[in-house]
Amino acid sequence: MEYLGEHLWPGRLGHFFVVLSFASSLVATIAFWRASKSTGASESASWKRLARCAFALDIGAAFTVFVLIYYILSSRYFEYNFAWEHSSRALSGKYLLSCIWEAQEGSFLLWTLWHCVLGAVLMIRGGRWEAPVMTVLSFAQVCLATMILGIYVLGLKVGLNPFILVRQLEAFRHAPIFQRADYLSIPQMQDGQGLNALLHNYWMVIHPPVLFLGFASTIVPFSFAVAGLWRKQYGEWTQAAQPWTLFSACVLGTGILMGAAWAYESLSFGGYWAWDPVENASLVPWLVMVAGLHTLVAYRSSGHSLRATYFFFFLAYGLVLYSTFLTRSGVLGDSSVHAFVDSGMNVQLLAFLLVFFLPALGLLIKRYREIPHIKKEESVSSREFWMFIGSVVLFLTATFVILLTSIPLFNLIFHGKRSLGEDAAFEYNRIVIFLALLLGLLTGATQYLKYRHTSKAMFLRKIATPTAIALIIAVTISWLGGIHYTRYGPGYLAAIHLALFGAVYGAVANAGYIWVGLRGKLRAAGASVAHLGFGILLLGVLLSSAKKQVLSYNTTGITVPFDPASKQDPMENITLLKSVRTDMGTYWATYLSNDSLDPAAQTRFFHIRLDPKDGRKGFDLYPYLMKATKGQEGFAFNPDKHHFWSRDIFSYVSAVDDALGEDTSSYKSYPVAVRDTVFYSRGYMILDSVVVNPREGKFRFGPGDTALLAAITVYGKDSLRYSAHPLLYIRDNRTYYVADTVFAQDLAVSLGKILDHGRIELLIKESGSLVPFVALKVLAFPQINLLWGGALIMILGFVMSILRRAGETRARSGSLTKS
Question: What's the predicted TM-score (pTM) here?
Answer without folding.
Answer: 0.84
